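Input/output pair, single chain:
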Amino acid sequence: MVLLDNMKIEILPYGDTLKEMAGSLHLADKEKRIEELQMEMEAPNFWDNPDRSNMLMKEFKDLKGVKENYEGLLQQYEDILTLIEMGEEETDPAYADEVRSELDDFKEKFDALRISTLLTGEYDSCNAILKLNAGAGGTEACDWTSMLYRMYSRWAERKGFTIEELDFLEGDEAGIKSVTFQVNGLNAYGYLKSEKGVHRLVRISPFNAQGKRQTSFSSVDVMPDIEEDLDIDIPEEDMRIDVFRSSGAGGQKVNKTSSAIRITHLPTGIVVQCQNERSQYQNKDKAMQMLKAKLFILKKEANAEKLSDIRGEVLDNAFGSQIRSYVLQPYTMIKDTRTAAENANAGAVLDGDIDHFINEYLKWMNRPKDSE
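Output:
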């Protein structure tokens, strides 16, 4: 069958690339580490330190997941070749359709795994903490911020990641003024670091009685959630700690006791805030963890060029600063100003389909320097 012959030609090059990918994924090192963790987990005193045990369990699960994804992809490649060979005498077009469906599924999984090999940054494997702030545009900007929060929540759901809301401040009339949330999953930061910057929306405002087109902005800050206990001493005189009443308006409908914590680091102006936990002490611990992570990165990446790779360039939350534009009127087009990646299906993107923009950003960041 000619269709099957064409599909065989199409899939054969993937075999060599899969072999090369084993090196890019450092599978041999991962397998060795999996064996070490298995031995440690079998020790009778493994659970004596629950915090460390949970951290090792997470590492084991993540490493095993990468290994199983690769092995599953390799097996699917071999299965497709077998299907093609078995169908050499087949005349039913439905058989070719079945193989094509399997091939398309393989290519989608292959592309996702190949992109993951670009996640080589020191913090890429970490969970991600995102903070969304409404910018220029008033109520419209608050509504836009809520749309972005939904977009990232849907994206996380597609990935099998979980969302943990840390802080929430609703808009005066509608939407969200600011929200801080944590995305938990392997390589969450590696993927979402592409999102830091100012996002611009152009649409017919539902809050404008005259139905005029309006532009609004929302900023996205992305930081890795560095789980290990960071050895950073912060003098008390360098911090201002404010205790206030939780808003209770977030997705979790948090309690309205005076348990929310805001910490301002006076020398740098960094502000972190948490109100998700059920006690003031838990909120303070989480806020201190976030502050230490930011200060750790500032200290480790001393020069501005390295710092911008991690925290992102600080831009005004208004005109001329956007990293991505979402145009819904008079036409639909979403375009990234850094990579020129675009998608006319605005509805799908706002429903969480942002992998194309993430992937193009990772390719752009990993491009050879001489290609600039």
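The chain has three domains: 2-116, 127-229+304-371, 236-300. The domain at 2-116 is CATH 1.20.58.410 (Methane Monooxygenase Hydroxylase; Chain G, domain 1).
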